[in-house]
Amino acid sequence: MDRTLKTAKRRNKRRSNRNYEAWRRFSPDGTTCRFCPHDNTQHLCSSGQPHFYRPATEGERRDPSVTLYRYALPQGGSALVRRMTAAKHAELITAFCTACAEAMQTGQVLCYQRNLAVGEMVGMRIDHKDIAVAA
Questions:
Q1: Three-state DSSP class for 97?
Q2: 31-49 b/e (C-beta count within 10 Å ≥ 16 → b)
Q3: Which helix (H) or strand (E) segment is 59 a member of?
Q4: What is the pLDDT of residue 86?
Q5: Is the pLDDT of residue 43 over 80?
Q6: Which residue in 57, 54, 73 sits closest to 129, CA to CA?
Q7: Maximum distance among all alpha carbons in the chain?
Q8: Residue 102: CA count within 13 A, CB half-sphere
Q9: Which of 22, 108, 116, 122 is the most exposed place for a label (fewest CB within 10 A)?
Q10: Residue 93 in contact with residue 23, Cβ under 8 Å?
């Protein structure tokens, strides 16, 4: 899967602040990368809120103010699920080092990639052809 990042065409202050705060929590000293000797100005980063989905309760299904999503089941059909946030702050999803890429004469170098707790389904168990929610 291609994870290439490009610099944004327009500046977005909210995204920049979110990425910077995520970088500060990611970096051991607040500025230097954990995996290379470069600082945050030499990296292209993307950040986001870690989340997962769980089956919706009956009360949530009846409540019009709750946002629910339709989860496609592997054997066909679907189930209503609710998105749950797994962390208080946004975290880095990817960090590419442009300085390392220049040194290696390549397009980009991936320093870090998070792939846990991003859109995973939890609490769903499939018994034969029926769907049961694990308690």
A1: strand
A2: eebeebebbbebbbbbbbb
A3: helix 58-62
A4: 80
A5: yes
A6: 73
A7: 57
A8: 6
A9: 116
A10: no
Q: Dihedral of CA 11/17/18/19: which sign? A: positive
Q: Which tokens belong to 73?
A: 């089941």
User: Amino acid letter at 48?
Assistant: G
For β-strands 43-48 and 78-85, DSSP reports them as: unpaired
Which element (helix H / strand E) includes 98? helix 98-104
Least confident of 25-29, 103-107, 108-112, 114-118: 114-118
* Residue 1, token pair as written in the block: 């899967």
The one-letter code for the residue type at 134 is: A
List, in sequence order, every beta strand (DSSP E) within the chain: 43-48, 51-55, 69-72, 78-85, 91-97, 109-113, 118-121, 124-127, 130-133
